[in-house]
Amino acid sequence: MFAMKRTRRAGIAAALALGVTLAAAGCSGGGGGTGGGDGGDEDAEISITMLPKNLGNPYFDTSTGGAEEASGEFGGTFEEVGPSEASPTSQVSYIQTAAQQGVGGLIVSANDPEAICDALDEARSAGVKVVTFDSDTNPDCRDLFINQATSDGIAQVQVDLIAEQIGGSGQIAILSASANATNQNAWIELMEEELAASHPDIELVQVVYGDDDDQTSFDRTAALLQTYPELKGIVSPTTVGIAAAARYLSTSEFKGKVALTGLGTPNQMREYVEDGTVTAFALWNPADLGYLAAFATQALISGEIAGEEGDTFEAGKLGSFEVGPDGGVLLGDPFVFDAENIGDFDF
Ligand code: RAM
């Protein structure tokens, strides 16, 4: 594990263009954006550290790019650090370091709802504002959670996609991220409920975990196909998992026979949509998610909001947002990518 500072700017223009596209598709909050967002308190130093589940995941590279862009707009300082492995406690040392450095805010996607809470409590006691995004902790461990879309919506879109792709019946499996990931576990629970309620002829035979590691996800895919010769589809609610599964399927005898859907980035999935391995998958705009998280953190640091339900703040080009129940702030709706639209996206 190693700390790392990022200065990458690549892809921001494209992500910006995408933000407009997805906003048009109903993704994010209303108008009224300032377009600049020069912060509430001009004298306050807005220093933000971003801590994804792990480094080396294009999804988090994109969300970090969005946060970095926002930070540039309100004139803050920005750093990304993170572990190489998405394991429950791998983020603890980075949280402790950020607290020792006295950063103003920490933006975290959690690998476990509870395992980093002691470290976050200490950071908050030291005055650090803590904002989770993408994958939450227990609500009492942070000030706000920036949620990409409702868990119901994310579960529903994936069940709809797999049900359609396998013709409404047969065996499916789920290839998830790490076993403790708050976000994937919430979505899987809701997918199971939706399958039971609306698709009695679809049988979920197993949930396996690729740990948001490419090779592990690839190997789990191979094992699933060997263990369940009748398998008709795989749902992978992780961008790492779906890309690895697609790579496996694309050169196997199962290509075009076993359906694959879930949550993926257009750039990682493009070749598999073009070669017929994958028909359609979903996601949101990770750049917008990071951008919104950074503006929310800035609003907390500057004292503009306390993180209470009903608090509102401006998030630059995305417009104004309101804090909902349990400190949640909602970005928008998931979006489905397929052969017709994937060419419009670059992240
Ligand atoms: C992976 C991570 C992330 C999740 C996406 C869909 O990149 O697990 O937490 O939101 O997939």
Order of strands across the biggest sheet? Answer: 2-1-3-4-5-13
What structural class do you assign from the helix and strand content? alpha/beta
Share in helix: 25-40%
CATH superfamily of the largest domain: Response regulator
Largest sheet: 6 strands, parallel
From N to C, what is the helix and strand string?
Answer: HEHEHEHEEHEHEHEHEHEHEEEE
Query: Helix tally?
Result: 10
Bound molecules: alpha-L-rhamnopyranose
Question: Could you give a quick summary of the protein structure above?
Answer:
The protein has 347 residues and is an alpha/beta fold. The chain has helices at 12-24, 58-74, 92-101, 117-125, 151-165, 182-198, 214-227, 239-250, 266-274, 286-301; strands at residues 47-51, 77-80, 105-108, 129-133, 144-149, 170-176, 202-209, 231-236, 259-262, 280-283, 312-314, 320-322, 328-332, 335-338.
How does this model look, in words?
There is one protein chain. The chain is 38% helix and 20% strand. By secondary structure, the protein is an alpha/beta fold. The strands form four sheets. A six-stranded parallel beta sheet has the order 2-1-3-4-5-13, with helices on both faces. Strands 7-6-8-9 form a four-stranded parallel beta sheet, sandwiched between helices. It has a two-stranded antiparallel ribbon with strand order 10-14. Mean pLDDT is 90; it is low at 1-21 and 23-43. Alpha-L-rhamnopyranose binds at residues 53, 57, 59, 109, 134-135, 177, 183, 212, 238-240, 263.
